[in-house]
Amino acid sequence: MGIPADILLGVIRAVGEETRLRIVALLQHGELTVSDLTDILGQSQPRISRHLKLLADAGVVDKHREGTWAFFELVTEGAIGELVVDLLGRADTHGSGLAADLDRLAIVRSRRASAAQEYFAAIAERWDEERLLHASDATVEAHIIDSVAGRPFDSVLDVGTGTGRILLALATHASSCGRPVRRAVGLDNSHSMLAVARSNLERAEVRGVDLRQGDAYSPPFERDSFDLIVIHQVLHFLDDPARAVREAAALLSPGGRLVIVDFAPHALEFLRSDHAHRRLGFRTDTVTGWLDQCGLEVSGTRTIDPPTGGSGERLTVSLWLATDRRDADVPDAQRSEIES
Question: What angle do helix axes 165-176 and 191-203 make, rounded to 10 degrees?
Answer without folding.
Answer: 30
